[in-house]
Amino acid sequence: MNRPDLDLAPVGNCSVSALIDRNGRYVWACAPRVDGDPLFSALMDGDDPEHGFWDIQLEGFKRVDQAYVRNTPVLRTVLTAQDGAAVEVLDFAPRHRKHDRTYRPLAFARIVRTLEGAPRIRVRLRPAADWGERPAARTAGSNHVRYLCTGATFRLTTDCPVSHVTEERLFRLERPLAFFLGPDEGYDQAVGPGVAAALDHTVAYWRDWVRTLYLPLDWQEAVIRAAITLKLCAYEETGAIVAALTTSVPEFPESGRNWDYRYCWIRDAYYVVRALNRLGAVDLLENYLGYLRNLVDASGGGHVQPVYGVGLEAEIDERIVDTVDGYRGMKPVRVGNQAREHLQHDVYGQIVLPLVQSFYDQRLIRPGSIDDFHALEKVGERAFALHDQPDAGLWEFRTIARVHVYSSVMCWAACDRLAKAAEHLGLASRAEVWRERAQTIRERIEAEAFLPDEGRFGASFGGRELDASLLQLTDLGFLDARDPRQVGTFDAIERDLKKGPYLFRYVEPDDFGEPETAFNFCTFWFIEALHLNGRTEEARELFDQMLSRRTHAGLLSEDIAVETDELWGNYPQTYSLVGVINCAVLLSRSWTDVR
């Protein structure tokens, strides 16, 4: 029996992605996009699904060793049998230059070869259709098998005898075998040499990309893995960045907090490009700015949803599917996200802040123009108009509406950054307008949200509840970390929201009762705040503790159980990987210490 867990390793190419378990079994992948129907659905189908996976079984299996090829998302799994026979499996999604373009097909590739002895293996390729309801229908040729999945037809081209695959026959592995599961079209070269060459080119691409990153001195392995995985969460064709690769992994057991994160949240993507920008990864930033400009144009200065499809779709309505059992049998399984209906006013700041960089950054192929600034002012107008209006907040409450301080501060940041950009562009009169608006919002927040009797901010206008997002007031430039009001807020958050080593988003009951797991991104916020409050050694210790909670692939999900340290929530979670990068950059020793 294969009980699902989140100790999974993603492979991908910024067009398609998959999650592979510790035994080298594909358990999750969607097509034709990350938000599509799963062709590998095993992660969402209970303990021992009959289809929705792709594995290589080794006769007499004893142990497995698995790790990424250095500085790449190419996964190497070594299966060893009791008699010492060993098989190496290399998994990747091709990505490299071809015909002066980036080649990133809707395809997964595997190379299987003998390391020791005379291993006998069985290839089980069982794609799913109709959201895991049934195995995909198939047809076979002399060197290929076609799988009619929902939304895409895949063709397996291989130099393995096709009947070995279709019959799932046990056979001796006497030579390297290549498998290319890709578009339903002919493979235009010998599959063995072709896949081997694609592997070499893919490894070279990723290692070259990593070489462009500016890394901190310490924790480089963690930062590199987080950066690569954040790039895998990008849908390069449009510039979208998804919050996670999965749907419906619960925030904690039987919680009902099962959400679909395979979409582009403006908030999450803002944090992703900001973190990668710290490493100099301008390619994702530039591509995402194009996605944002399209959203700004489409909004026409009006309402902006907090979340969109990777193809800029607004209609990502939420529904429940019952064709799979759910992660560990825990339903519901949701497709789409109701948050698209919410009012979340922080999004206007999270549109302005990354786009403002285009007015300053000389690296960009397309720097921001005066016309871009005036288009962005429409977003700022929206931020100013809504800064004191109730919304669902960044935690997306479904039945609670308040004037959330985090949303208001993001609206302030939008006006503040527009003022600075206008000044930089020589638009003195516009700079004055935006400075005045930023000051108006600041005064309103300070009057409505500060609690003099406690010396701290509340999470909403007139409210006394606490929210971990108040730690972001420093990061956004609203308050200095040593401002007594921020120190008082930090002290209250540490007292009330910290459970064991971890930080909760909030502890008051919400639409689904009281939260039972800590939110990993908030713990990273807390680590940053510890450092800014002069407690750097504590920050480093807690950071190392968080790194020890990563999966073997070096990644984190959204949530963590305080008592057991078990990971919960969708995976890999971009928020959490952003936290790894931000804290490593902040806490690392300087390069001048060693050179």
Molecular structure report:
With 595 residues, this protein is α+β, with helices and mostly antiparallel strands. It contains 14 helices and 32 strands. Strands 6-7-8-11-19-17-16-15 form an eight-stranded antiparallel β-sheet. The radius of gyration is 25 Å and the shape is globular. The mean pLDDT is 96.
Feature tags:
595 residues; 8-stranded antiparallel β-sheet; globular; 4-stranded antiparallel β-sheet; alpha+beta; 14 helices; single chain
Give a brief outline of the structure:
This protein is of the alpha+beta class.
What composes the largest sheet?
Answer: 8 strands, antiparallel
Shape: globular
Given as residue ranges, the uncertain stretches (5+ residues, pLDDT < 50) are none
**Classification by helices and strands:** alpha+beta
Strand content: 15-25%
Mean pLDDT: 96
Cα-atom radius of gyration: 25 Å
Multimerization state: single chain
Number of helices: 14
The largest beta-sheet arranges its strands as: 6-7-8-11-19-17-16-15
Task: Please give the number of β-strands.
Answer: 32
Distance between the termini: 52 Å
- Can you give the helix content as a percent range? 25-40%
Task: Give the topology.
Elements (H helix, E strand, L loop, with lengths): L8 E4 L4 E4 L5 E6 L5 E4 L12 E6 L2 E8 L6 E7 L4 E7 L3 E3 L2 E3 L4 E9 L3 E7 L1 E2 L4 E2 L1 E4 L3 E5 L4 E6 L3 H5 L4 E2 L4 E7 L7 H21 L8 H13 L1 E2 L4 E2 L22 E2 H13 L3 H18 L7 E2 L10 E3 L11 E3 L11 H10 L13 H17 L18 H20 L3 H22 E2 L4 E2 L14 H4 L8 H14 E2 L2 E2 L13 E3 H13 L3 H13 L10 E3 L5 E2 L5 H14 L8
Antiparallel strand pairs: 1-2, 2-3, 3-4, 5-12, 6-7, 7-8, 8-11, 9-10, 11-19, 12-18, 13-14, 15-16, 16-17, 17-19, 20-21, 22-23, 24-25, 26-27, 28-29, 30-31, 31-32
